[in-house]
Structure formats: structure tokens, C-alpha cells
Design brief:
The structure is a single chain. The chain has two helices and six strands; from the N terminus they run βββαβββα. The protein is globular, with a radius of gyration of 15 Å. It has one domain. It has 103 residues and is α+β, with helices and mostly antiparallel strands. The structure holds zinc ion (ZN). Zinc ion (ZN) binds next to α2.
Length: 103
């Protein structure tokens, strides 16, 4: 679905039909992560990661860390392959999956 920031994101969900005003982010969040608000979508790296990695086994966990003194929030993404485990670089995706496709 298209986020308030205008990018495709599989974790974003909204429903404004029949007077409903539902907008939410369904990504798993680390404990202590700031709660979601539509503003976050502007700086969130998740749509880029999804577009870049192209892995269907990608499983992401997001932490949005508030910082003091009006500094911009920091976004930390942990990526897992549901088949092979931790992924070092979310933008590259799972190297073992890439190898499977190529073999
Ligand atoms: Zn994999």
C-alpha cells in the first residue's frame, strides 16, 4: 500500500472507506521503539529496503529511536530471512537466497 509519504510499503495499511479512519504500520517493532505515526513514513527506510532486496522471505523488525534536543528520530532495521536467518545488509537481502536463484 502507498504510505502517507507516497511510497509502496507492504507493512502500511489504511482504510478510509465509509468513514473509517484507519491507518497503521504493521511492521514488528523492537521494544522501546516509538509508536507509529504517519510522520514516520517520510524518513522510514523500509520501502527502500523492500524495493532493493526483492526477497520474499524478508522479515523485518523496526526500531524508531527518539533522540533528545529535537534531533530527528533514528531508524534501525533488523532483517531476517525466514529460511536462512539473520541478514547482514537489508538493502542487499539474503545472500543464500540470491545464490539459490542463481544456481
Ligand atoms: Zn534466505
Amino acid at each position: 500500500m502507498r504510505t502517507p509519504a507516497g511510497r509502496e510499503c507492504s507493512y502500511y495499511y489504511e482504510d478510509f472507506n465509509r468513514g473509517a479512519e484507519i491507518a497503521r504500520c504493521r511492521i514488528r517493532r523492537s521494544s522501546g521503539s516509538a509508536t507509529w505515526g504517519p510522520r514516520q513514513c517520510r524518513r522510514c527506510p523500509v520501502p527502500q529496503i523492500e524495493a532493493a532486496s526483492g526477497s520474499s522471505r524478508l522479515d523485518l523488525t523496526l526500531a524508531v529511536r527518539r533522540r533528545p534536543l529535537g534531533l530527528a528520530e533514528r531508524f534501525e532495521v533488523e532483517a531476517w530471512c525466514t529460511e536462512h536467518g539473520p541478514i547482514a545488509d537489508p538493502y542487499v537481502g539474503c545472500l543464500e537466497c540470491v545464490a539459490e536463484v542463481r544456481s
